[in-house]
Amino acid sequence: MSSALLTDLRARGLIFQAAGEEQLPEWLDGGVRTLYCGFDPTADSLHIGSLVPLLMLRRFQLAGHRPLALVGGATGLIGDPSFKAQERQLNTPEVIAGWVDKIRQQVSRFVDFDAGEASAIVVNNLDWTRDMDVLTFLRDVGKHFSVNAMIQKESVKQRIEREGSGISFTEFTYMILQSYDFAELSKRYGCGLQIGGSDQWGNITGGIDLARRMYGNQVYGLTMPLITKADGTKFGKTESGTVWLDPVRTSPYAFYQFWLNTADVDVYRFLKYFTFLPVAEIDVLERADEQRQGRPEAQSVLAREVTRLVHGNEGLVAAQRITEALFSDNLSTLSAADFEQLRLDGLPASELPEAASMPATLTQLLTEAGMAPSGKQVKDALARNAVLCNGRPLGWGDNEQPAAVLTPDNALHGRYFVVRLGKKKYHLFYGKAA
RNA sequence: GGAGGGGUUCCCGAGUGGCCAAAGGGAUCAGACUGUAAAUCUGACGCGAAAGCUUCGGUGGUUCGAAUCCACCCCCCUCCA
């Protein structure tokens, strides 16, 4: 364990802001330190936005420190206003409790619970806030906060100043709750460092102040940069929405594809953020790619590493199997068993209706299968020969006779159709087994 | 409680009686070019195969005709008490 960790984190561009920067290296070098990062249940799964902090916990653990993963059973009931443009809708306590369970399991996959002194712990802030009464909260905790200072925080400024949106007292209080978490963890576990995304800076510094005021504990804070893409679009979204960590929401295949599609300008930075590959190795890869003609190798390394981290080796193999089958034009070499496997691996698939109950149009069939949000898009694609069925282009003329197109004669192994829309959207249709 | 401002299609934002399924930009989707990139160009972009159907906070009304006018209601913001 050593502040060599900090050097590596800096080289990766993972440190955005630090509170107590002068003493931090020394503190880290002084023994097994305890740190925490919070994850609020805002859905039943985390998405890749939480990946950097999750991996960060692991980086610290690998460096010999003890990570606490906090699941925000309490803060999730309130909602963090930080840099949010609008007040959020409250969810019921029952719903949140369900999400807490899911997130606890998810978070647990990224840290090691059997690492001696550095063994991870999952905590829930509901445990120390549930039974606190209002007056205690206001007198013992609230008294340490200056509203004057709170409204100055950049994270809530736009909500306070901007016309068209306000902030409820409930959300405004969030900062105090999270600050209290840090103070409490410093007391309970000797936790001396909180990490989080750059949007958490205000909440983290609030906690640092509170820990000192309530318990005289000197604690530290680190934030990680917001992950951005060079083209300015939001990181973590695909055409089908958010990229989730839960394989049920985002299949390992889709997850793998997401990373594979990383832009060249972003990929080396992402390798540093999202993998444990040494920086030197990433630099070598970058130089090698510069020499190469055509497609760089970095994307496939990134996709492989991150998919393995999140979905394990099995998930990775499944993702690669589908990718290989679809993007190498060798559909005809696949066996019936292979198709079944692709289905199990998470290739989007649906059962084909009987010829008698077949939808009247292909646009309808493909839309219902979720390949496109509206028939218009399918229509557009058909008109441009961008819809392929088992490799054969379909045209606008085929639209009104799906039953004539999707016949057993045209199927692979009598019942499989791989329909491709555009360059990357694939869907497996399967008929009844013979 | 008082005064004022505002709610338009995914987002921003025009439109203030017919020419409006609603300008423009962004996002998104598809094509060309490529490397399942980037940049650029092209097309699509409420729903529908089409005929046609449904939109401009809500409900009623005026009118041959409403996103646009009227009434009431709901929500948001600003200032004052």
Break the fold down into its secondary structure elements and pairings:
Elements: H1 4-11, E1 17-19, H2 24-29, E2 34-39, H3 51-62, E3 66-71, H4 75-78, H5 93-108, E4 121-124, H6 126-129, H7 134-141, H8 147-150, H9 154-161, H10 169-172, H11 174-189, E5 191-197, H12 201-215, E6 220-224, E7 237-238, E8 241-242, H13 252-260, H14 264-274, H15 279-291, H16 298-327, H17 336-345, E9 349-351, H18 362-368, H19 375-383, E10 387-389, E11 392-394, H20 402-405, E12 416-421, E13 425-430
Parallel strand pairs: 2-3, 2-5, 3-4, 5-6, 9-13
Antiparallel strand pairs: 1-6, 7-8, 10-11, 10-12, 12-13
Helix pairs in contact: 11-12, 13-16, 14-16, 18-19
The structure holds one RNA strand of 81 nucleotides.
Tell me, what is the CATH class of the largest domain? Alpha Beta
Give the name of the CATH architecture of the largest domain: 3-Layer(aba) Sandwich
DSSP summary, beta strand count: 13
Total helix count?
Answer: 20
Radius of gyration: 25 Å
- Ends: how far apart? 62 Å
Overall pLDDT score = 91
Would you identify the regions where 5 or more consecutive residues have pLDDT less than 50? none
> What is the CATH topology classification name of the largest domain?
Rossmann fold
Which class do the helix and strand fractions yield? Answer: alpha/beta
Number of domains: 3
CATH superfamily of the largest domain: HUPs
Helix fraction? 40-55%
Q: What portion of residues belong to β-strands?
A: 5-15%
Characterize the overall form: elongated
